[in-house]
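lol forgot to send this yesterday, sorry. struct tokens for the thing we talked abt
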């Protein structure tokens, strides 16, 4: 900190920090207003922490606080989204905002404030992870379906078009690819998710084992083998088994070291990260069909030849950028990089098929 009067640049920077802290606190309060229980308490605690940071800049500014200035555009956009949606997307954006803190490199900010921002990032990451877990199964199917629909049907349409087929043939091929692909994706996701849930369910302790627990031979203590079979080291397994047998008031599911029990709340899904079979199938079908329709649109509207190819490629490119950016936002990564990666992969596959179509057509 400096004892001399602050420079204009310092005052300007402190005022901006003050505005950003106020805006971030408002974001957390808005998010808290759309939640209940523990998540609400955590978000309100984050808002209180931002108030402490706000007070630091108020103390530094003193009489130079001046008129309130607006927070930066990203924080204001985040606040607008928080007031209207409050979803995992907003939490993912808040996580990225906390990661961009400039306090590490600013001598006017305390080390404690810089550390606070790092911890805030982890807190928001944890809250966002809850939402990601709840939506991960269906979201994976939706992103995979949309991307597959965009890329596979663009490649199909460009390949057939480059071979010299008539626009009518290209259109019918694209529509057939849309319907066949959507049905295949939906059925495949249903079977995949259903099978995965059945496999996970098969790993749960059976009711017979639970009933036998109070009658185990304390000296033989074969319960330790259960823990060893589930990956615990021999010493740890024996210690856990001894503890369980010494206190059988502990719930059976906790004794076997797996989440969930017969007494668990009926609306708790142990395998929520996998998603439901019907939800994944529906998301995959709808998003594949939506994605596959985009490269067909120019042909539906009567475009032909290179004009149709250019329009189809442009529209699919925009859609690929959108899906890539969405994945980047939810994963807490750079939306721009994910968008460009998605675009490069999609156009690479389509270009290869187009070149093959030209070769076969020739």
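and heres what i got for the seq, position by position
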């Amino acid at each position: 900190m400096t004892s001399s009067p602050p420079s204009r640049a310092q005052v300007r920077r402190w005022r901006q920090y003050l505005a950003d802290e106020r805006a971030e606190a408002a974001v957390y309060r808005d998010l808290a207003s759309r939640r209940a229980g523990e998540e609400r308490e955590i978000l309100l605690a984050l808002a209180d922490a931002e108030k402490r940071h706000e007070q630091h800049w108020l103390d530094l500014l003193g009489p130079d606080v001046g008129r309130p200035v607006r927070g930066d555009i990203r924080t204001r956009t985040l606040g607008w989204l928080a007031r209207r949606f409050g979803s995992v997307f907003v939490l993912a954006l808040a996580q990225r905002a906390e990661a961009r803190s400039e306090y590490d490199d600013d001598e006017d900010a305390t080390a404690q404030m810089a550390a606070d921002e790092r911890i805030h990032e982890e807190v928001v990451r944890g809250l966002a992870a809850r939402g990601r877990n709840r939506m991960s199964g269906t979201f994976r199917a939706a992103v995979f379906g949309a991307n597959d629909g965009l890329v596979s049907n663009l490649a199909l349409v460009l390949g057939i078009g480059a071979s010299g087929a008539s626009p009518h043939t290209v259109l019918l091929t694209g529509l057939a690819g849309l319907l066949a692909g959507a049905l295949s994706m939906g059925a495949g996701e249903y079977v995949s998710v259903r099978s995965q849930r059945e496999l996970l369910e098969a790993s749960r302790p059976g009711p017979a084992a639970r009933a036998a627990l109070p009658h185990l031979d304390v000296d033989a203590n074969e319960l330790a083998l259960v823990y060893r079979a589930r990956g615990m080291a021999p010493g740890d397994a024996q210690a856990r088994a001894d503890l369980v047998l010494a206190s059988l008031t502990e719930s059976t599911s906790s004794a076997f070291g797996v989440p969930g029990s017969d007494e668990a709340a009926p609306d708790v899904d142990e395998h929520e990260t996998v998603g439901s079979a019907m939800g994944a199938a529906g998301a995959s079908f709808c998003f594949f069909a939506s994605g596959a329709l985009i490269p067909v649109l120019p042909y539906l509207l009567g475009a032909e030849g290179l004009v149709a190819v250019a329009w189809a490629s442009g529209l699919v490119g925009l859609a690929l950028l959108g899906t890539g950016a969405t994945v980047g936002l939810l994963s807490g990564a750079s939306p721009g990089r994910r968008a460009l990666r998605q675009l490069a992969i999609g156009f690479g596959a389509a270009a290869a098929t187009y070149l093959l179509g030209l070769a076969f057509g020739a």
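The mean pLDDT is 74. anyway ping me if u want another try
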